[in-house]
Design the sequence.
């Protein structure tokens, strides 16, 4: 009786054969679409029919694109004719339309669970049932005085329907909201960039905004550059970077890929330097050693814009301060310590190899102390520790390429974050090398767009809406310009005294899991994300989710979170609703392009799909809060005030009808175009914030821990011990990016993979041969570490001992220490395309680690045992 | 009459796979998850060359080569495969009996057999689009503008110029099939 | 990057095999007709040829994607080996079908129907061409180096003759009735001939695989696939042991002494083994058809 719904019968429930002769569902849409395409194919003249409409992709970020619509069906796609797209979009844009919007397995009706949770048995229900069930649950918690027991998890900001409204809704209802996935994505990178460069530069640095057109040489660690990067200019898609990359290469740009894997896109690099996981800090230190020894650093930059000359106690490494608490540096002329002033004036001396004495206390400059600390990590040592399969000369060569080409160089740790428990310090090391190279706001170096449209969040205010409930509630910045309650799980530890985590972390996932275990989160709505498997430690996550009273999920295609839901709502897709975006891209024309654009509803929502904002408005009305929601115009009204705030005269309707508004302004290099909001008002080689909030703070839980050392340090991570043990790491493929590209019948095809099969686990060919493993063999992978006793960072290791089997692909392009799987290539939901279950769910093998202060979740920090089990 | 040929400049190829997916979608080639077969008119050839750590991965979209001495045309029992005046190796589905011999004969594995229709299928340089003055989908949608199609007989056409200046070569020329698709800056 | 063709599988293997068998059985019949001996074996041969060939053509037809457009297959005999084959098989089939029918309607008579000599000559030519053609058909597939060799027609011809003998012997012992004693002499000669065939076939296959293993990447991968890869079981068990070694031993055994005493079971087993071997050979050669990788580096 309790049979599992097969994929076919699931489809049946989702609408394909609902209602006798009714023509409903994407299946029939697909058919009609095919006919159109065929017709267009056979009679090109007819192509002139149909209308190009302006909207945006959402398969990685939000490349502005046009879709040609004929009879309310999309029949063609092209990029907008603005820089850097110039009419082009990548494979994901096409996969998105035909593999998601018009997928035959698209969810087109609200669904209600009928079997056990996770069993995947659903029946069709009405919108009213879902709205009622959701509102009742929130009402119940409101009556108990705990609306925050209901939580909204939103995911990718470009895939989420009006994310600003969702935050406003949470504020009004008193429910919680979290960008759970964000922390796994880039949270600790933002924190690191904030403490080193200041919060106002963090976003651009995390996004990788750099002047690639003038760059001569770069070392780029991972993230499948250039195929899967955040691009120059914040928040565009990968289609935006390809033209810039090609132009840069034409200009002579060369780069070294530093990655355990020769990724599909990484194969475009000029050379590949395989590195053992978790040892990047040593590599960076070895490079720094060469730069320091051969004086290939930018002394003027260091003394003018960084606190490299700041004096610290030689023994304790604590900052030297005067009576007023000012940071000090050594003035050679007066032979005395003087106050360190803000960036802009060249001041002090680097003091490498020098020790000073102030009032009997031996002290050094920050750089001097660091140079001494890292001296042991010579190029020889780096070759050994990083297990780089080249001679020491290679490190010298790379350091020389960087040093002699500076400042037109980039030394990047990549976008994604928290790969291992030491990643926060690894990123600090990357930043330190960049500071030595003086490549900030110099031609060919890191660049911060000078003009941006700051649109705010568009939250409506009195008298449009009644006065906010709990008017005293403090809201603080969340991710992507959103505002969240300071009382939220993600923010309480960031605003404690001293802060336990940096406020620029975007979410603290473990806090949510702990709260779920403690019964303090009882119901969940998830949209545009799949935290069920993207969060690490799936065993823990599933345990938490199974304990909830209510899960509602908004989606277009099946996934794990859909399978776990009590109610599934058919969410309007990204081309079926409106959203404003602004960004500044750096074009292949060498100019900045501040741009405002609308994702518009180019087509009607398919089936019974509705935007989440509509769903939440209806829920809000049932909660008696209609006054706050029902008069908000999600189509245009929400966005016009935002455009106005940015000082733009265009309306959202203009943008929908005429396409993006984009300016072209020349690039200008100016280090101090913005203030530097760090404690020393300089780029911090030595982090005074880490020193004061953590390392030397008597009340900080991280006091005296190396993870928060104010100088960049190398912290070894747990290593595989035996010959059958590996690091299990994951990475992205160019034609995939995130939740939205999973289960996509076009992007999942084998033909698109070329020589990089998507679902198997990769092993180094020689290493596999030693274990008797051949191409296509089936192996069993068992999670064996890190365990809680290994490191203080390990927060939960419920998944130790988890096993799964998978096919092997042998490659020469992989470091022998690792096994590799594409991120989220494998899934466990039976509702999805069968092929996704051929792969492993990487997160099932990754215990939950939490980096002090930066809050990274070590999403590649997994040690596994591998054995061959079959052919 | 133009004698169509194509050149793919691999230094402009970013391996984004847009050629593959647009060809599949707009030519309505059955999806793998509907048909159970991996059909495509463009194959993505991406061999790994060398031994760790000195390894490289090449990347080439492989279309029908529109050979002047096309083995598929020679082996076809019905004349379904033929070379048009425009140099394109056309394929007449009306005449195809589905013997699959052409698929075995093509050294570039440029053809596939559609199990549902019982017909072979192949790239025809989007001949209908060319006739209508449009570019083939793979050319029009290519992010790097890496693919250029044009008249090989015209020394001033873009395709001829690129072949000349960039030293473009066909794949496996030793087979003597005289392909009309050329590659340059193979990397 | 190497992969084997999947276009032609079992139906084509059966087609190639049965075309070979029919060629073999016809040649056996023609031989005894020419020798004016073993009338019974001539009959068996003719009875076998037409159905085998018919079935062979049927399987080729079944494998077409567009079965009702089959007449198009005859359009290009000047170019396409499929067309050549279509004509060849059709002409051969018309001839053997007529012989079959004549023989069937004359089944009450002791003697086989009488034909002018040119009928047999034409039949034998068509039979040889059919057997060789099956090898050439694969051989012209330029993309698959493993097939691209003149050894293949030779191998298929030998196998055709050997399996033809096997098929005739099998039918003869099944339907032997009172003529049993008469056919002993015929069996003796056929076994002798078959020993030669098998030895020649063994030499051929060794030389073929060795030569391929020493050739390019794709061809050597094909050879490896057969000798030690996924096809090894079929190759060693069905082809080498059942199809060659066992019949060879049995035949050599039966040839001791000047006459043979036909052991029905043994002969049946041996003949079936020969046939299994013939089919296995066609299948492994098809399945090991690995495409040569295209390369710009030449």
Sequence:
């Amino acid at each position: 009786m309790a049979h599992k719904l097969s994929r076919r019968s699931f489809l049946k429930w989702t609408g394909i054969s609902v209602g006798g002769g009714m023509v409903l569902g994407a299946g029939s849409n697909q058919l009609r679409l095919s006919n159109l395409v065929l017709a267009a194919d056979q009679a090109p003249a007819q192509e002139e029919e149909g209308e190009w409409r302006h909207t945006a992709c959402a398969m990685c970020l939000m490349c502005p694109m046009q879709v040609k619509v004929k009879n309310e069906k999309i029949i063609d796609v092209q990029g907008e004719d603005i820089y850097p797209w110039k009419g082009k979009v990548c494979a994901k844009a096409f996969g998105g339309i035909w593999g998601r919007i018009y997928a035959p397995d698209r969810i087109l009706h609200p669904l209600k669970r009928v079997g056990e949770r996770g069993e995947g048995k659903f029946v069709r229900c009405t919108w009213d049932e879902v709205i009622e069930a959701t509102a009742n649950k929130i009402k119940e918690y409101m009556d108990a005085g705990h609306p925050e027991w209901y939580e909204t998890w939103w995911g990718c900001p470009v895939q989420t329907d009006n994310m600003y409204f969702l935050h406003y809704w949470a504020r009004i209802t008193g429910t919680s909201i979290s960008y759970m996935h964000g922390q796994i994505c880039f949270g600790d990178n933002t924190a690191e960039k904030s403490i080193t460069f200041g919060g106002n530069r963090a976003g651009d640095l995390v996004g990788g905004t750099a002047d690639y057109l003038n760059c001569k040489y770069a070392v780029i660690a991972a993230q499948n550059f250039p195929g899967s990067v955040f691009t120059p200019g914040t928040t565009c898609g990968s289609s935006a970077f390809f033209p810039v990359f090609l132009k840069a290469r034409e200009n002579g740009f060369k780069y070294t890929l530093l990655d355990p894997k020769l990724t599909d896109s990484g194969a475009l690099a000029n050379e590949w330097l395989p590195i053992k996981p978790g040892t990047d800090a040593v590599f960076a230190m070895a490079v720094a050693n060469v730069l320091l020894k051969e004086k290939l650093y930018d002394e003027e930059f260091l003394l003018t814009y960084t606190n490299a000359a700041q004096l610290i106690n030689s023994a304790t490494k604590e900052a030297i301060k005067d009576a007023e608490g000012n940071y000090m540096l050594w003035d050679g002329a007066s032979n005395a310590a003087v106050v360190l002033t803000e960036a802009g004036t060249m001041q002090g001396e680097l003091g490498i190899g020098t020790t000073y004495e102030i009032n009997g206390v031996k002290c050094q400059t920050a750089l001097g102390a660091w140079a001494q600390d890292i001296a042991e990590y010579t190029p020889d040592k780096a070759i050994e520790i990083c297990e780089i399969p080249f001679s020491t000369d290679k490190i010298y060569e790379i350091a020389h390429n960087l040093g002699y080409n500076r400042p037109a160089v980039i030394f990047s740790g990549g976008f994604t974050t928290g790969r291992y428990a030491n990643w926060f310090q690894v990123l600090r090391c990357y930043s330190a090398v960049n500071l030595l190279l003086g490549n900030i706001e110099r031609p060919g170096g890191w660049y911060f767009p000078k003009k941006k449209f700051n649109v705010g969040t568009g939250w409506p205010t009195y008298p449009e809406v009644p006065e906010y409930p709990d008017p005293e509630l403090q809201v603080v910045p969340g991710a992507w310009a959103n505002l969240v309650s300071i009382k939220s799980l993600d923010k309480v530890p960031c605003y404690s005294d001293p802060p336990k985590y940096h406020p620029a972390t975007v979410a603290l996932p473990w806090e949510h899991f702990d709260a779920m275990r403690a019964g303090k989160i009882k119901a969940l709505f998830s949209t545009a994300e799949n935290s069920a498997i993207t969060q690490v430690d799936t065993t823990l996550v599933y345990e938490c989710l199974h304990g909830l009273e209510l899960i509602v999920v908004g989606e277009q295609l099946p996934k794990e979170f859909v399978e776990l839901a009590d109610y599934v709502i058919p969410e309007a897709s990204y081309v079926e609703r409106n959203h404003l975006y602004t960004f500044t891209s750096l074009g292949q024309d060498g100019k900045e392009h501040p741009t405002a654009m609308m994702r518009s509803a180019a087509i009607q929502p398919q089936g019974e799909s509705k935007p989440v904002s509509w769903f939440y408005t209806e829920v809000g009305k049932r909660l008696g809060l209609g006054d706050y929601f029902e008069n908000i115009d999600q189509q245009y009204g929400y966005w016009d005030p935002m455009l106005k705030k940015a000082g733009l005269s265009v309306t959202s309707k203009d943008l929908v009808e005429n396409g993006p508004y984009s300016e072209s302004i020349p690039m200008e290099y100016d280090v101090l175009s913005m203030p530097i909001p760090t404690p020393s008002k300089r780029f911090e080689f030595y982090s005074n914030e880490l020193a004061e909030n953590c390392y030397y703070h008597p009340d900080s839980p991280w006091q005296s821990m190396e993870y928060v050392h104010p100088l960049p340090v190398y912290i070894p991570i747990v290593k595989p011990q035996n010959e059958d043990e590996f690091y299990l790491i994951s990475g992205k493929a160019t034609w995939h990016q995130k939740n939205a590209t999973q289960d996509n019948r076009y992007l999942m095809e084998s033909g698109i993979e070329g020589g990089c099969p998507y679902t198997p686990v990769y092993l180094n060919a020689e290493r596999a041969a030693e274990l008797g493993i051949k191409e296509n063999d089936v192996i069993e992978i068992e999670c064996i570490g890190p365990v809680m006793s290994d490191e203080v960072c390990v927060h939960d290791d419920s998944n130790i001992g988890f096993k799964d089997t998978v096919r092997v692909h042998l490659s020469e392009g992989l470091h022998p220490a690792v096994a590799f799987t594409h991120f989220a290539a494998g899934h466990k939901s039976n509702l999805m395309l069968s092929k996704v279950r051929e792969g492993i769910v990487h997160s099932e093998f990754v215990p939950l680690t939490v980096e002090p202060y930066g809050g990274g979740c070590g999403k590649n920090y997994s040690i596994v045992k591998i054995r061959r089990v079959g052919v | 009459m133009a004698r169509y040929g194509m050149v793919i400049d691999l230094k402009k190829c970013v391996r984004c796979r847009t050629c593959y997916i647009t060809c599949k979608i707009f030519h309505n080639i059955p999806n793998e998850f509907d048909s159970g077969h991996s059909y495509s008119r463009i194959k993505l050839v991406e061999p790994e060359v060398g031994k760790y750590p000195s390894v490289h991965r090449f990347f080439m979209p492989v279309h029908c080569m529109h050979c002047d001495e096309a083995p598929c045309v020679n082996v076809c029992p019905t004349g379904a495969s033929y070379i048009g005046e425009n140099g394109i190796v056309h394929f007449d589905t009306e005449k195809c009996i589905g013997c699959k011999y052409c698929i075995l004969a093509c050294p570039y594995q440029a053809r596939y057999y559609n199990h549902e229709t019982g017909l072979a299928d192949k790239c025809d340089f989007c001949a209908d689009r060319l006739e209508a003055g449009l570019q083939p989908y793979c050319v029009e949608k290519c992010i790097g503008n890496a693919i250029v199609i044009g008249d090989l007989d015209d020394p001033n056409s873009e395709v001829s110029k690129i072949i000349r200046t960039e030293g473009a070569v066909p794949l496996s020329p030793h087979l003597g099939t005289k392909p009309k698709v050329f590659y340059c800056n193979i990397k | 990057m190497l992969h084997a063709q999947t276009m032609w599988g079992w139906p084509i293997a059966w087609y190639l095999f049965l075309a070979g068998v029919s060629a073999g059985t016809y040649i056996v019949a023609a031989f005894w007709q020419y020798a004016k001996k073993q009338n019974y074996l001539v009959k068996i041969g003719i009875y076998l040829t037409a159905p085998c060939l018919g079935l062979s053509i049927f399987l080729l037809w079944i494998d077409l994607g567009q079965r009702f457009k089959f007449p198009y297959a005859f359009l290009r005999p000047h170019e396409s080996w499929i067309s050549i084959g279509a004509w060849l098989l059709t002409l051969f089939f018309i001839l053997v079908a007529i012989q079959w029918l004549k023989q069937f309607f004359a089944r009450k008579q002791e003697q086989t129907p009488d034909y002018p000599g040119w009928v047999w000559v034409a039949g034998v030519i068509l039979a040889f061409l059919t057997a060789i053609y099956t090898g050439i058909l694969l051989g012209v597939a330029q993309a698959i180096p493993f097939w691209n060799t003149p050894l293949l027609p030779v191998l298929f011809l030998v196998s055709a003759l050997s399996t033809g003998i096997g098929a005739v012997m099998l039918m003869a012992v099944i339907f032997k009735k009172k003529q049993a004693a008469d056919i002993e002499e015929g069996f003796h000669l056929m076994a002798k001939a078959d020993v030669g065939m098998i030895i020649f076939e063994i030499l051929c296959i060794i030389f073929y695989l060795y030569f391929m293993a020493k050739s390019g990447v794709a061809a050597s991968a094909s050879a490896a696939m057969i000798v030690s890869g996924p096809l090894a079981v079929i190759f060693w068990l069905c082809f080498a042991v059942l199809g060659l070694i066992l019949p060879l031993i049995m035949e050599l055994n039966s040839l001791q002494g000047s006459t043979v005493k036909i052991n029905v079971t043994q002969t049946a087993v041996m003949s079936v083994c020969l046939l299994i071997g013939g089919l296995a050979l066609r299948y492994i050669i098809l399945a090991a058809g690995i495409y040569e990788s295209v390369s710009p580096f030449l």
The helical segments of chain B are 18-26, 32-35, 71-75, 101-105, 127-131, 137-141, 158-166. Chain B has one domain: 4-184. Residues 84 and 165 of chain B are 28 Å apart (CA to CA).
